[in-house]
Design a protein that fits this description.
442 residues, alpha/beta, Urease, subunit C, domain 1, TIM Barrel, 2 domains, eight-stranded mixed β-sheet, six-stranded parallel β-sheet, 32% helix, globular, binds zinc ion, DHOase/Allantoinase_Hydrolase, allantoinase activity
């Protein structure tokens, strides 16, 4: 009988600490042996030759909206997780809103969790929501296994997920701190965005430029400053999602130096698309906060290079095509990106800006695992770690086509873009869930 279930032969093994050539053996869903000097001895039921390919810890996407249950016609665990597997993602955290009911109490959590178990191809965790009406449900959500909580400081765009005013934020943060959990925050100022939106719509200007002006960087700065103050006051761990600007990141870095337990996420679209793309591609590239100018994108890469960004999440937030119509103020705000996170980082980071594979692994796997207490079970290639792996060919290039996308709706602002670096295989708990050779998902 074979000693191992799977052996990956002759690949380049990448961790946040370095790259070395070797073999990896898997047994019972875990990494059982790694050999970088001699060829790994032993036999396996399955051997995959990965010569000249790179083996990375599977990505952990801490920010997706799969909308199930309730809006499964927008996405769903099945289609969403297939897209992730094809993109090299082996674990995701689903946000508490856009699904219906919103994940703001135990019943909603249990319902969503059972759907995920039934349908997801990859590992997953669920975020709980913090809304003004559910402070009394935070404990039960934490006990159910919520990976953390999510709150909005401005309108979420979803009626059953209300933004928190300052009093509810403070109450929620006190409770979350007591639960030793973490609060992820959509940090844009309701006052600023509402005021500017009303002013611009009154003028009748619903262009891309006007939409961008309605949600300026200053709106993020004001909200982030406030939530950092509340974090100091309540001792609550926080995570600022989808930050678009290095100016915002500087504030967060300064707060870290003062001892605030805060981490920051940005998304592939803020690292690769600009206000010019929004005008050119249209509402397919609409998101909130909005895309920024090209110089901001470069400054965001500088912040990433300096180690000031902790995590990259996709903020995959799809909708049916009919909601992606209308003007820049009325169309659904959300970009479909779950499948292309690694592709963007390889093309725009590794190839164009000399960002190392180690850095990409740190931002997409190791740091998320550490921040959410999944390390060293996940986020690293080591003996006894979960065999969640993605294998890529750095030199293979492709142009993204509609039919490549596994989303429920084959929409993406990246269609037609050329990428260098292709996901060849994805393994979850030691099982092959995606192979580009077969061009299908098992
Ligand atoms: Zn989101």
């Amino acid at each position: 009988m074979a000693e191992f279930d799977v052996i990956l032969r002759n690949g380049y093994i990448v961790t946040e600490k370095g790259v070395s050539k070797g073999d990896i053996a898997i047994k019972g869903g875990k990494i059982a042996a790694i050999s970088c000097i001699d060829q790994l001895k032993g036999t396996a039921a399955d051997e995959i030759d990965v010569t000249d390919q790179y083996i990375l810890p599977g990505l952990i996407d801490t920010h997706v909206h799969f909308n199930e249950p309730g809006r499964t016609d927008w996405e769903g665990f099945e289609t969403g997780s297939k897209a992730l597997a094809a993109g090299g993602v082996t674990t995701f955290f689903d946000m508490p809103l856009n699904s219906h009911p919103a994940t703001i109490n135990k019943d909603a959590f249990d319902l969503k969790f059972s759907r995920g178990l039934e349908k997801s191809l990859v590992n997953f965790y669920l975020w709980g929501g913090l809304v003004p009406s559910n402070i009394n449900h935070l404990q039960e959500l934490s006990e159910c296994g919520a990976i953390g909580f999510k709150a909005f400081m401005s309108d979420s765009g979803i009626a059953d997920f209300k933004a928190c005013d300052d009093v509810h934020l403070l109450q929620g943060m006190e409770k979350i701190s007591e639960l030793q959990s973490l609060l992820a925050v959509h940090a844009e100022s309701q006052q600023i965005t509402e005021h500017l939106t009303n002013t611009l719509i009154r003028r009748g200007d619903t262009s891309a430029k006007s939409f961008s002006q309605s949600r300026p960087i200053l709106s993020e700065i004001e909200a982030v400053q406030r939530i950092l103050t509340y974090a100091k006051l309540t001792n609550c761990k926080i995570h600022i999602v989808h930050v678009t600007s290095s100016e915002v990141i500087s504030q967060i870095t300064a707060a870290k130096k003062q001892g605030v337990d805060v981490t920051v996420e940005t998304c592939p679209h803020y690292l690769s698309l600009t206000t010019a793309d929004l005008a050119e591609k249209g509402v397919i590239a609409k998101c909130a906060p909005p895309l920024r100018q090209a110089k901001e994108v470069e400054m965001l890469w500088d912040a990433l290079r300096n180690g000031e960004i902790d995590i990259i999440g996709s903020d995959h937030s799809p909708s049916p095509p009919e909601l992606k119509e209308g003007d820049f103020f009325t169309a659904w705000g959300g970009i479909s990106g779950a499948q292309t996170t690694l592709n963007i980082l390889l093309e725009e980071g590794y190839w164009k800006r000399n960002i190392s594979l180690e850095t990409i692994v740190r931002l997409t796997a190791t740091n998320p695992a550490k921040r959410f207490k999944l390390f060293p079970q996940k986020g690293i290639l080591d003996i006894e770690s979960d065999a969640d792996l993605t294998i890529i060919d750095l030199n293979e290039s492709f142009v993204l086509k509609k039919e490549d996308l596994f989303y429920k709706h084959q929409q993406s602002p990246f269609l037609g873009k050329k990428f260098r670096g292709k996901v060849k295989y994805t393994l979850v708990n030691g099982k092959l869930v995606y192979s580009s050779l077969k061009e299908k998902i098992r």
